[in-house]
Design a protein that fits this description.
Radius of gyration of chain B: 18 Å
Structural class of chain A: alpha/beta
Oligomer: heterodimer
Number of strands of chain A: 20
Shape of chain A: globular
CATH architecture of the domain at 382-471 in chain A: 2-Layer Sandwich
Largest sheet of chain A: 5 strands, parallel
Number of helices of chain B: 11
Strand order of the largest sheet of chain A: 4-3-5-6-7
Number of domains of chain B: 1
Number of helices of chain A: 14
Largest sheet of chain B: 4 strands, antiparallel
Chain lengths: 489, 305
């Protein structure tokens, strides 16, 4: 307990001053968290505060973030090829930046990182891992990490999962993410190893096989009897739910306790249908993270906000057209500056994620109200549609479609701007007038100005299919053997 | 004989109060960590170091340290009992103030001061034993602590004058770390706070680890050992300062070994609560203080300073 207290103090010092976090402190905290879960069953709700430091008022938070931004900007200006010219060309001194100066700094675009990833690597860093994004929105981007960063990522992941009661030592964790999502996979694998949970990394294989693995009994001492944690993408979860319900599975067939779903927009319809299959008691959490800014991440709250730790990075919501800060309620793209000590190798200042969220009005009254927040993820900007009435985002469309039972999961569709609004094509179970009416009403409820609707029953009939991560198939030499009828029933 | 009986009753009150407190109130733990072997090692280091500090540090500094530590422990013990901050501070602050005031007005040998000081020490023993037991101290680690203290006491009191010198230094100060009873003519007999603490924590940890019976047996062992020492002391068969842990420590170790062999793995605190739920689970909710370590641990019979 004393050692844990010392480790917490050392971590707090690193968070306050932006200094490297010693490995011993994180290791000690993980051991303490594991011991606490073992002895007491769970960690008290205030456990998270021991990792994030004290709650700060807005003024103190701004002052701290400005100091941390300057520190990171100085490192970027003196240590990376990209930002050295960035600052010298503008005759800016990173050590004296103000918030107004920061707002005038240009954004770091995805293309710049994609075209020359090494120009963002600090010259004193020693990368040992270069992660590539899955490239769902274009050519993959490469981001390098040092051994210390990876160590910290896995330890923070373990701590987060233990404190949040997400992964327990007795759990069996099935990871159904693309094997190319190496950073997330490393993070989860490292967390499971630290926690002592059993990890089954299966990738995005034939969903029938994944379902078979989820219901397969496991007979190991000290383990739960079946897979208890599932980590996957929203669309792949949709595929599993659709297949499972069609095959007649019921909640009693599963032992899932927690589903971590991310990488895509997670809709209420998906969550509702997933609970129908896996049970009302299953906890389904989403969050926001991306390789480029990892481990900077957004935590959802009960009111649908995404909250960000101010000591981990600076988050801005900028109007995609004017580049200025969005007013509350307006949608803009997330612009993120990850701070040290969480980001020491690939330095990014004002990185334009192209992920769209709404700015939220403060003060907040949710459980994370002391943390900066945005609205929930609306989707990628380049997958959103600009039309005469404004913007329609993937969350609007997918959210509406997945509410409709006649639309199979995942909601497969295509949509584009047409004069007066949005034209849409969608895969439905049956093309009937009733289905059409339900789809139209759902879209209307979600504020989609529909000017044309085409229903199809075969995904291959979609002309402009919206990209879904469940289609990042990892194929075998031949189709998998088990059928749903044979598996676990 | 009366004084020895009274001291035994004080010890019994501490042990039984700790037992009741354990079953009724919950001290809030730090969110991360359990009381483990590292903490036991630190406790032992403090036991070794503190006598030297008490002897060498200026009296005003020792008194101040004792007052601050005592106040914080008392506050944390009282906190789950009442939700009113005023009541918490009144009890904790009142006891500390009374201890300070009475030693100043009546001196360290007055009966009233000794009674108040006893109340303070009993409360500390109840609080710290619960901090350890509710903090997840394992029976194995407690047995290690008990065995190590017994060895230390044998050396520090049996062969070296450290303990006696420390008690002489502290006996004129407030927050004397002993529960004592006056024997007349400015003399008293008493038991050290460390002995009280180990006697109180044993039943709690053994109950958590192995069940109610193990806890009750531990309680009988603790009170029996103290009674034995006091009876023998009455016959003047022991030196003036005799550490009870020399007797109690080895018995606690043997008791742990027997239960460990009988029951196998220890229960965790979560399993203990699941199998023996409290009658009033809603009671509780406090902070955690760094309680004083064992300050002195011996049954003591000596003239007051």
């Amino acid at each position: 307990m004393i050692a844990a207290a010392l480790a917490q103090l050392r971590l707090a010092a690193s968070l306050v001053y932006g200094r490297p976090i010693p490995a011993w402190a994180l290791d000690r905290l993980v051991v303490a968290a594991r011991d606490t879960v073992h002895e007491f069953g769970q960690i008290a709700p205030d456990g998270g505060q021991s990792l994030s430091g004290p709650s700060l008022d807005k003024g103190t938070r701004r002052e701290m973030q400005l100091r941390r931004f300057r520190h990171q900007a100085k490192r970027a200006a003196t240590g990376t090829a990209f930002y050295a010219t960035w600052f010298s060309d503008r005759a800016l001194d990173p050590a004296t930046l103000t918030f107004d100066d920061i707002a005038r700094l240009p954004l770091t675009k995805k293309g710049a990182l994609r075209d020359n990833p090494d120009a963002f690597v600090h010259r004193d860093a020693r990368p040992i891992h270069r992660s590539t994004t899955t490239g769902t929105t274009g050519r993959p981007t490469q981001v390098s990490f040092s051994a210390r960063e990876l160590h910290a990522i896995t330890r923070f992941s373990a701590l987060g999962n233990l404190i949040g009661d997400q992964i327990r030592p007795e759990d069996i964790v099935l990871n159904a993410m693309s094997s190319r999502a190496s950073l997330g996979n490393l993070s989860l694998a490292g967390a499971c190893a630290q926690i002592g949970a059993l990890l089954q990394p299966v990738g995005l294989i034939d969903p029938r096989q994944t379902l078979a693995l989820i219901v397969q009994p496991v007979r190991m001492p000290g383990r739960v009897p079946k897979v208890s944690v599932l980590s996957t993408y929203a669309s792949y979860l949709g595929v599993l739910v659709e297949l499972g319900l069609a095959a007649g599975y019921r909640p009693g067939d599963f032992a899932l306790r927690w589903i971590s779903v991310g990488g895509e927009v997670v809709t209420d319809g998906l969550v509702r249908r997933a609970r129908r299959l896996f049970g009302e008691g299953v906890r389904i959490d989403t969050g926001y993270a991306m390789t480029e800014t990892y481990p900077f991440a957004g935590m959802p709250c009960e009111q649908g906000h995404l909250h960000f730790e101010p000591s981990h990075g600076l988050v801005e919501v900028l109007d995609s057209e004017t580049g200025t800060a969005c007013q509350p309620g307006r949608a803009g793209t997330l612009v993120v500056t990850p701070f040290s000590p969480f980001r020491e190798t690939t330095l990014l200042l004002r990185y334009d994620t192209q992920d769209v969220v709404r700015a939220v009005a403060e003060p907040l009254n949710c459980r994370h109200r002391h943390l900066p927040a945005t609205g929930n993820l609306l989707g990628k900007l380049n997958l959103s549609v600009r039309h005469g009435h404004g913007w329609t985002y993937p969350a609007d469309v997918i959210g509406a479609l997945e509410e409709v039972e006649a639309v199979p999961l995942p909601g497969r569709c295509g949509f584009w701007a047409e004069p007066g609004g949005v034209a849409l094509e969608v895969v439905v179970r049956k093309d009937t007038p009733e289905t059409r009416l339900m789809v139209e009403q759902a879209l209307e409820r979600h504020g989609v100005p529909l000017v044309g609707l085409r229903l199809v029953t075969d995904p291959d009939e979609l002309r402009q299919p919206f990209p879904l991560r469940c289609d990042l198939h990892e194929l075998g030499f031949r189709q998998s053997e088990p059928t749903l009828g044979e598996v676990g029933r | 004989m009366v004084a020895n009986g009274a001291v035994w009753l004080l010890a019994a009150a501490a042990v039984m109060s700790a037992w009741l407190y354990f079953r009724i109130w919950t001290l809030t733990r730090p969110p991360l960590g359990t009381v483990n072997l590292g903490d036991v090692s630190l406790t032992l280091a403090c036991i070794v170091m503190l006598p030297f500090l008490y002897i060498w540090l200026p009296g005003w500094l020792v008194g101040t340290l004792l007052a601050i530590t005592t106040l914080s422990v008392l506050w944390f013990v009282v906190e789950p009992v009442t939700s009113a901050p005023l009541a918490r501070w009144s009890v904790a602050g009142g006891l500390v103030a009374a201890d300070l005031l009475l030693i100043r007005l009546d001196g360290s040998t007055s009966t009233l001061f000794l009674l108040v000081n006893d109340a303070v020490m009993l409360t500390i023993a109840v609080g710290v034993s619960n901090l350890w037991a509710q903090g997840g101290l394992r029976a194995r680690d407690m047995a290690i602590l008990a065995g190590a203290i017994a060895l230390y006491d044998l050396v520090a009191t049996g062969f070296l004058p450290i303990t006696t010198a420390m008690i002489e230094r502290l006996s004129g100060m407030p927050f004397l770390p002993m529960a004592v009873w006056p024997t007349g003519s400015g003399h008293w007999t008493g038991i050290g706070l460390g002995d009280l603490l180990m006697a109180a924590v044993g039943p709690l940890v053994m109950r958590k680890a192995f069940g109610r019976t193990a806890g009750l047996v531990a309680m009988a062992i603790a009170l029996g050992a103290i009674a034995g020492v006091l009876v023998v002391a009455r016959w003047d068969a022991l030196p003036e300062t005799f550490p009870t842990m020399i007797v109690l420590g080895p018995i606690m170790v043997v008791h742990y070994i027997l239960w460990s062999r009988r029951s196998g793995a220890e229960r965790t605190y979560a399993r203990y609560l699941a199998e023996e739920p409290r009658a009033h689970p809603s009671l509780g909710g406090v902070g955690w203080g760094n309680g004083p370590r064992v300050l002195a641990n011996r049954a003591h019979k000596r003239p007051a300073a």
